[in-house]
Amino acid sequence: MTPIDIVVPYVNNSDPMWLKEFLRYKSNNGDRGSNRFRDLGIFKYFFRGVDKCCPWINNLFLVVQGESQVPKWLNRNNPKIKIVYHDDYIPKSYLPTFNSNVIEDFIYRIPNLSKNFIYCNDDMIFLKPLQPTDFFDNGRPIGVKRIDTESYKKNGTSIFHHMLFNTVMSFNLIAKTGKLIKYKDFHLPIPYDKSIWESTWEHHGKKIEDSLKGSTFRLPKNIIHWLFYYLQMYTGITKDDPNYLLQNGYLSLSDTSKPEDIRNKLDTAAAICINDCIKNNMGIVKKCKDLLEQHFPEKSSYEL
Hints:
Blueprint: E1 4-9, H1 16-25, H2 43-53, E2 60-64, E3 81-85, H3 86-89, H4 100-105, E4 116-119, E5 124-126, E6 136-137, E7 140-143, H5 159-175, E8 190-193, H6 194-212, H7 226-235, E9 239-240, E10 249-253, H8 259-268, E11 271-276, H9 283-295
Parallel strand pairs: 1-2, 1-4, 2-3, 7-9, 10-11
Antiparallel strand pairs: 4-8, 5-11, 6-7
């Protein structure tokens, strides 16, 4: 079986060293919203989910800005853990960065990353036992080729909307579709074939570089890593499986979230994204953590 790695970036905004650097560049243009960097304290459940539900993974690459960002509770003696610092793979001209697009668009450069890998955010958690075949079929990433033709056309003023629009336009130009295509986006773990990143960077790297230059924080001109996801879909690298994401869940954790809705997602989804949309009600975070602790009461091999 082809090795399958997991890549997950992480940021701890309470780290004094990180915060000092953040404040130094905070006056730069871009998306500096607090929920872009806020750590809700649920990251250990990502590791518990991997340990319990995906024990077959080859390596787990944890991407952080620097040494001070590595969680104190992480068991670095676990042979699967590979700590990757930003300067290990991101060109120096883009550093320091607080831009998720810079961190993500260069991940194919991570040393020793396997051809097949699953990309996750630090707010995603595997909840049920899964198999390699749930993500790859004989090396082909599995996904849902669901066309979504309207979302990028909607009038929007947010930085994210503009980044998405720029990514969709770039995809159609690079793929030479001859029309406007956009695939449905999912805030969930994405299986990737590294070769699509390598070939896209080889032939269209200048376009991606230009979109990221001068972007210490996220800017409207940036290209999201979904560019590679769309290209996988369009070129046929991805195997279409309409059932792939039906077992998974997306949870927008907000001030008005109900505990019973959180519990239902944890009980029914194979994987979940707990997206931080909280403004004031941090009590709901505690309730979410309590429910996650009930779901994963035992420490993982990734924890001390």
